[in-house]
Please model this.
Amino acid sequence: MSTPAEHPEVLPEEHPVAPYIRTDRMPHIWCPTCGIGTVVKCFATALAESGLDLNKVSVVSGIGCTGRVAGYMKLDGFHTTHGRAIPFATGLKLGRPELLVTVFSGDGDLVGIGGNHFIHAARRNMDLLVILVNNFIYGMTGGQNAATTPLTAKTSTMPYGNFERAFNLPQLAASCGATYVARWTCLHIRRLTKAFGEALKRRGFRFIEVITPCATLYARLNKLGSGLDLMRFYHDNAEIRHGADTREVGIAFQDRIVCGKFVDEEQPSFLEMMHEHYRKTLGSKYVPTPPEGGWLHE
Amino acid sequence: MKADPAGVLTGVHYLDGDFACGEGAMAAGCRFVAGYPITPSTEVVERISRRFPLMGGTFIQMEDELGSMAAVVGASWTGTKSMTVTSGPGFSLMMENIGLAAMMETPCVVVNVQRGGPSTGLPTMVGQADMMQARWGSHGDYEVIALSPQSPQETFDLMINAFNLAEVYRVPVLVMMDECVGHMTEKVVIPPAEEIEIVPRTLTGQPPESYLPYKVDGKPVPEFARAGDGYRFHTTGLTHDERGYPVMSKECQEKCVSRLLDKVRRNVDNIVRLEEREVDGADVVVVAYGITARVARIGVELAKLQGAKVGFIRLITVWPFPDRRIRAVAEKVRAFVVPEINYGQMVLEVERCAAKAGADAVLVPHPGGGVHDPKRICEAILGAAK
Model:
C-alpha cells in the first residue's frame, strides 16, 4: 500500500467529521462492517450542519457496543452504567437546562435493562434526544437474545431460534408519549442525518431508531452473509412510509423494514410543563433553576 | 463560603428527623433531588418538593431507585449539589450507581433512613442493619464516607457536613439515619445562613486544551469541570487514565483504584468525628451510633450506678472506621460493648481493632423493630467488666 510520504502530491485530508471525534482514541473497538460508525458519522454531520454550540451538547451512553459512542465523540461524554443512560441524562438536563442532552445507546441497553427508564422518560416528554442503535442482538457480550430479536432469529442463547416476541420500538415510544419518532437504517445516511438535524432542534422526548448490521454475531449466527449483505438487504427491503401507523411497523425476521418519520408533534416538554405549572400555581414566588445550572456562585 | 440564604430556614423549629434532613440538604446548597417513595424516608422528599420551587431547586420523582441514583450522578456533573433519599430496599437498588459515582468521583449525598430487613422487612420500624452494605454494597474496591446522626438536630448538622465532605473528597457520602431518628420530633435550631460554612463546587481554572479530568498533581482529588463549559471531557465507569479514557490493563487498574481508596484512607483523621465520654480510666467502653447511642447512654448510666467504670464512644462518622482511635482505646480497656439494631455489623470492626490488644468486643444485638432495653446493655457492660 502506498503512503502519502511516498506520494507527496497526495495530500492527507482530514475526515470531515474529525473535529467531532476523539481521533486520539482511534482505532475504535467496533467490528468491520458494524453500522455504529455510520450512525456516528451521520450524527456528527448533523451536529456540524446544525450551527449549535457544541460546548453545550452532551452525549450519554450506557453499556454495550453503542455504549462506546460517548467515549468517541468530542463532546462532554458520559459512559454510564448498563441501562441507566436515560436517567443519568435526565439529571444532567435538569441540573443545567441549557444543555442539549443526547442519549446514544443500543437496544439491549435502552429497552432491555433500561426499558423502565425509557418508557417513563417518554411519558414525561423529557427533553432528551434518544438515538437507539438496534442490531437485534447483544453484541458486546457475544450474541445473546435481545428484546428486539425478531421471532425465529438465532442467537447464542436461543440456539434453536427465538420464540419470544420482540418490541416494536416506534410503537413503544409513541404510545408512551414520545413527540418525535423516526426509524432509519444505516443505509439511509442522508435521511438519517436529516432526521438527526431535525430532532436536534426539537424539544421533549425525541426517539430515533437506527437499524444496523452486526455481521460478527447476528449475521453469522443466522447465516445472513456479511455486513454488506445486510446493507443490501436493507436496500431491497426497507420501505419508506412517513406517518405510518406505528402499530404496523414491527420487524419480522428478514422481512420488510418500515422506515420514516412516524411522529412529529408539538407538545409541551417536561421542562416547559414544569415551568408553566409552577408559574401558574406559585406566581412570583417560583424560582426556576437558572439555565446555566444550579451550583452556588460565589 | 457561606450558605445561600434561599435554602436556609433560619429559626427554632420542632421538626422530625426526616424534615430536618431535608432542611439540612437545602441549607447545604443541594439543588437537585431525585427520589422514589419509600417508608420511612419519604417525608424528606415531600419537604424538599414543597420548598425547592421557591429556591431554584429541582426535584424529580423517578421511576425507581436505579433511576434516582443515576439522575443524581448526572446532575452532579452540572456542578449542582445533588442527593437522593431512600431506605433499605431502595438502597440495594442504588448500589449500582453509587459505584459509578465512586468510580467517576462524583460528589453526591445518599440518605438511608434505615428500617428492618432483609428484603421488605419492617417498612415502618427501625433497623440499623445496612451498615456493612453502606461500606461494601457496590461491587469492587472503593471508599465512601458515611455518617450517622442521633437526633433531628444532628441530622440537620450532618447533612451540611455530608455535602461538604462530598465536595472535598469527590465521593458519595452516605447519611445512615434510622427510622427512629427519622420519625422523632425534637427541637431543631437552624442558624442564619452566614453562620453555615459551605464547601462550593470548585471548578477547574485550567483551559480546556490542557485540562485532564483525572489528573491529580499530588492532590487527593482531580479538578472538576462541569458539562457545558467547553471542556468536552469524557468520563466512564470503566477503569480509566488521567484523560478519563478507558484503559484495560492491570497497571491502570492499580493506579485508578488505589487513588480512589487512598484519597479517603490517607485522610481518615481529617474525616472522622467521634463523641467520647469518660474513656480515660474505663474498664469497658460502649461504642454505639444513631438512635442506639441514645439508648446506650442510659445503659451506661445504669452500669455506673452499680460501680462499673464505663466509657462511651459515639460514632458520628461510621465509615471510614476510626481504626486508630479504637486501637488506642483497646490498649487500655478490658472490653468494648457494641449495641446495634442488627445481629453484628459495626461490632466486627471494633473486634478487628481490639483484637491485637486482647480486648473483647461484645455485641448486644437487636433484631430490629424497636430499640434496645437499656437494662440489656447494662448487663452486657457488667458482664464484660468482670
Summary: The radius of gyration of chain B is 21 Å.
